[in-house]
Amino acid sequence: MSPLSRLDPSLFALVRGENIEGFNRAKPANLRVDFGGADLRGLDLRLMDVKRVDFTGVYFGCADLRGLDLRGCNMQGAILEFALIAGARFPEDITPEQICASVNEGSPLLHLRESAVA
């Protein structure tokens, strides 16, 4: 597991401004980026490089996550309320039922195994 980097406000500003290409260029190459608790509602994140990004407790309400490979991301407590998720790949220990409940009802996601995310 790579070391965790606290969220750099400039990285967060790039994502909030939907400058995903800029975020992808500025993201540290060998550190995990901490987006824990961030509000990413309504953003188009389809082209975001999510490798080594920690999404613990993130609110993705109405965000566009289509096609993202989130399998290596910590999604503990994340909420997908009304998010677009077609083609997105989620960590294997988060059940399809949890994902549907999060999208439809705003339930937080829970990893079934604590050590599932490296």
Description:
This protein is mostly helical. It has one domain. It has 3 helices and 3 strands, in the order βααββα. It has helices at 9-16, 20-26, 96-105; strands at residues 4-5, 32-34, 53-54. Strands 1-2-3 form a 3-stranded parallel beta sheet, with no helix packed on it. Helix 1 runs antiparallel to helix 2. The radius of gyration is 13 Å and the shape is globular. The chain starts with a strand and ends in a 13-residue tail after the last helix. The mean pLDDT is 91.
User: Count of helices?
Assistant: 3
Strand arrangement within the widest β-sheet reads: 1-2-3
> Got a strand count?
3
Tally of structural domains: 1
Largest sheet: 3 strands, parallel
